[in-house]
């Protein structure tokens, strides 16, 4: 309980990736502006959803539904409400701009002999519980990339971003599973590949998942703001860039973005 306002304290949880941290910072500011004391937690994908199912997280920011995170919400879906989407994420495989589009336009082109001989065969990703990691592992099999020496290797967010920066610096021929919103999209002009099998899940809707108990405790004006808040992929990427490139703390980045979006300082 916030002793100044009498509003109940709330726990906001986010997946431990920077763009989820960015979106969660905005949600935290909305709740704080309504007088709530907010505690934040973060964890990898499966762990965070399990924490909410166990009653340890009031507001989870955000679930990508239906494709990426639907399997994690399903076991306790009757005990939560999913608010309208704050952004519309999607996954792609992308290559740097110097790979000729006439040679590498789609995922299947990675198996062409003259392309395969130049490509780095390890396809680096983030943690294995992420939707894009599950999808990418399947794509290696379904497109027959494994028969040409390719392998998907899950990793950490840091290893993923380091891998992209290293490949860009070396002008390497590589492919990377990436998504919007992600700040690297603003830096490197990565070109998405056509993926006709549709294995990457399409466009999801990313909205906060709120427990029924918390729905009855959140200040009505905060709940209404959360229902109408729409950052879009561009907004989340802008906040993500403020954190990762400009070095702002997540809450400071959220304040900066919101002040520019609304024309008012916090």
Structure description:
The protein has two domains: 10-88 and 204-262, Periplasmic binding protein-like II (D-Maltodextrin-Binding Protein, domain 2, 3-Layer(aba) Sandwich); 90-192, D-Maltodextrin-Binding Protein, domain 2 (3-Layer(aba) Sandwich), CATH 3.40.190.100. The chain is 38% helix and 18% strand. It has eleven helices and ten strands. The protein has helices spanning 18-33, 45-53, 70-73, 113-116, 131-142, 157-169, 185-188, 212-215, 220-228, 232-244, 250-262; strands at 10-15, 38-43, 59-65, 80-82, 90-95, 122-124, 151-153, 176-180, 191-192, 205-211. The strands form three sheets. A five-stranded mixed sheet has the order 2-1-3-10-4. The protein has a three-stranded antiparallel sheet with strand order 8-5-9. A two-stranded parallel sheet has the order 6-7. Helix 5 (131-142) links the parallel strand 6 (122-124) and strand 7 (151-153). The radius of gyration is 20 Å and the shape is elongated. The two termini are 22 Å apart.
Can you give keywords for this protein?
D-Maltodextrin-Binding Protein, domain 2; 5-stranded mixed sheet; 11 helices; alpha/beta; 266 residues
Can I get a quick summary?
This protein has 266 residues and is an alpha/beta fold. It has 11 helices and 10 strands.
